[in-house]
Amino acid sequence: MTIKDVARIAGVSQSAVSRFLNGGSLSQEKRERIQETIDKTGYKPTVAARMMRTGRQHQIGVLIPRVYSDSVAQIVTGINEYIQDYGYGMVIGETRYEEERELEYLALMEESGAAGIVVMGTELSTRRLAAYRGIRVPLVVTGQNITGIPCVFHNDFCALEELTGRVLKKWHSRFAYIGVDDRDPQTGTARREGMLSACRRAGYKKEDILIEYSDFTAMGGYNAIQRILKTTKDIEGVVCATDTIAFGAMRALYEAGRVPGSKVGIAGVGGSQMAAYSLVPLTTAHYYFKKCGMEAAEILIKTIEAKMVGELLPAKQVCLDYKIVERASI
Amino acid sequence: MTIKDVARIAGVSQSAVSRFLNGGSLSQEKRERIQETIDKTGYKPTVAARMMRTGRQHQIGVLIPRVYSDSVAQIVTGINEYIQDYGYGMVIGETRYEEERELEYLALMEESGAAGIVVMGTELSTRRLAAYRGIRVPLVVTGQNITGIPCVFHNDFCALEELTGRVLKKWHSRFAYIGVDDRDPQTGTARREGMLSACRRAGYKKEDILIEYSDFTAMGGYNAIQRILKTTKDIEGVVCATDTIAFGAMRALYEAGRVPGSKVGIAGVGGSQMAAYSLVPLTTAHYYFKKCGMEAAEILIKTIEAKMVGELLPAKQVCLDYKIVERASI
DNA sequence: GGTTTAGGTGAAATCGTTTTCATTGCGGTT
DNA sequence: AACCGCAATGAAAACGATTTCACCTAAACC
């Protein structure tokens, strides 16, 4: 069933059918006849042929650091849900945090005709930034705040400020923070600075705050606590840059006899599913990752559609709110 | 840069270049000249045009029940890793356990020219089976054992038999199992039967075994334990059909003062990342989900390539092994 | 009444490949 | 010498849509 067949059956020309599909001037009468035959035959335009002519496909690329992650899964769900309604598909690339792989994927997706790209921002190296800026298809970044590029991210500074405040209210001394590398500006820098701001406000001196660093794994959090316990056995309050890190930290504390919620207060960030169901439910700054994905998809699709008619949209920046969820861990 | 340009520069015909790319008889001399110009110009065939002509694209569809899941994420990672090397991409569809949505996606992927499809099996309804059998593109199912259809799954029966045996060795009485619906033959029936076999072997009478049912969430496990505790406060051994269910169950037990590992033994299935890092590390039957994804991808791609040359491969069934990981929870 | 103007129309060109088809030349067999 | 088979070859058709082009008609304007 091709456009030709539809045209023949409806008794009009190919062009008429094409115009019907893509919007062009057409008499009401033919409109109805075409609509009718399309309904009857169940005709659907072939993606490949359309794409070959127009050069772009109805598909957006999604670049993620790893699929095996709570937040990533939620963001992807959000993107997927949104684009479905617009008839778009999704191709996923896993960068494993490797710059080289990310740049490769970016190039591949661009040249293979993706209509747009969502990349979940991690490290913001110079090369990556250049790639984001230089790419010729619409691109939206999530999780990072980059001026001049459309992006969707959470209010990390305020989240950590408020979260840390809550922890300090109950656990007054011997405070530690387990963060991540500054190469990730939001998760690294913004979250740490938010935490520091709360500490200052609570009268802490900077040198009294223990800061340890970890990667994005539970094991990283586990090891960080081990290091902390070596010097400070009686640690009282711990804030972690992510829930996953917090799980590892909790486990290390529990093993050392410092039961979270009764001997020590601990909190994470993200609001993962497991946070509510760990033995000691984890206090966390709940992030709206799914919404984040949907917002990113919305911006992307709007940009794509605008680009089709030749407009240029200003780079929209969306800062999402968060919600502190207090549970038994503090 | 099109095939035409390459032909012109190399001083050969279009057909020659096409034959060079797709394999056809061609003199050594032209081969070299073409290779040279391709290297020089960096020419890459346009996906859309190729696909339009052949009707199939270098892309495989992946149908998952939800992206927000440990095992799913790992399987997808495995698929992705394998197909990358063959130049294939991946489009993901989320069925949310809804039959209607699954059938829609199946049809959509088939008609939009996916080269093959991997579906992660859940319920095996009649309509789904008919769809799997009737589809005209290669299809591989993971997580379910369906005769006549290529599939990759774990040895659920033996896994549960061995796992339950381990639990019963330490916790001798008042045993409970939290399973899932029989509409999912592997996760529902096979796992329960494996568990029952171990119980029989240990001399349990069927009526002494408490069986509760749950969905695939932690909350489901939590609620199941609540129901169990109403009649049997002193429950001693619990086996759950998945790790996620086990997390919810652990939490409910912990809240009721029955600390896992010291007052009650509990185990799950899957080997999720969190199992090692929950406060009380969870004993589990570790499943090789990533390998499962890779195996599925391998079978699929082999089938696709075989189909191109007109062969028909027998439906390969792969039964993966598991590994019992004993941790503090029992 | 004559001249624009604008919308409606279908034939044909176009996109970048793969595939078919007819032709060539060459080595080997009668 | 005549014939067959086969690898090599390039011109041209095909794939299914969109887009251009030229033409037609009817309404609107002076």
Detailed description of the structure:
Two copies of one chain form a homodimer. In chain A, β6 (175-179), α9 and β7 (210-213) form a beta-alpha-beta unit. Helix content of chain A is 47%, strand content 17%. The mean pLDDT of chain A is 91. The first copy, chain A, is built from twelve helices and twelve strands. In chain A, strands 2-1-3-4-5-11 form a six-stranded parallel β-sheet, with helices on both faces. Chain A has three domains: 3-44, no CATH class; 59-154 and 290-320, 3-Layer(aba) Sandwich (Rossmann fold); 156-287, 3-Layer(aba) Sandwich (Rossmann fold). By secondary structure, chain A is an alpha/beta fold. Chain A is elongated, with a radius of gyration of 25 Å. Chain A has helices at 3-10, 14-22, 28-41, 47-54, 70-84, 99-111, 126-134, 156-170, 185-201, 218-231, 243-255, 289-308; strands at residues 59-64, 89-94, 116-120, 139-142, 151-154, 175-179, 210-213, 237-240, 265-270, 283-287, 317-320, 322-325. The N and C termini of chain A lie far apart (64 Å). Chains A and B meet through α4, α5, β2, α10 and α11 of A and α4, α5, β2, α10 and α11 of B. The structure holds a DNA duplex (30 and 30 nucleotides).
Features:
homodimer; 330 residues; alpha/beta; Rossmann fold; six-stranded parallel sheet; DNA-binding
Order of helices and strands of chain A: HHHHEHEHEHEEHEHEHEHEEHEE
Mean pLDDT of chain A comes to: 91
Report the sheet-strand fraction of chain A.
Answer: 15-25%
Total of helices of chain A? 12
CATH topology of the largest domain in chain A: Rossmann fold
Q: Outline of chain A, from the CA principal axes?
A: elongated
Helix-and-strand structural type of chain A: alpha/beta
- Low-pLDDT stretches of chain A are none
- Compute the CA-based radius of gyration of chain A: 25 Å
**What is the number of domains of chain A?**
3
* Largest sheet data of chain A: 6 strands, parallel
The end-to-end distance of chain A, rounded to whole angstroms, is 64 Å
Chain pair sharing the greatest interface: A-B, 46 and 46 residues
- Give the CATH level 1 class of the largest domain in chain A: Alpha Beta
CATH superfamily of the largest domain in chain A: Response regulator
Helix content of chain A: 40-55%
Second rung of CATH, namely the architecture of the largest domain in chain A: 3-Layer(aba) Sandwich
Record the strand order, biggest sheet of chain A. Answer: 2-1-3-4-5-11
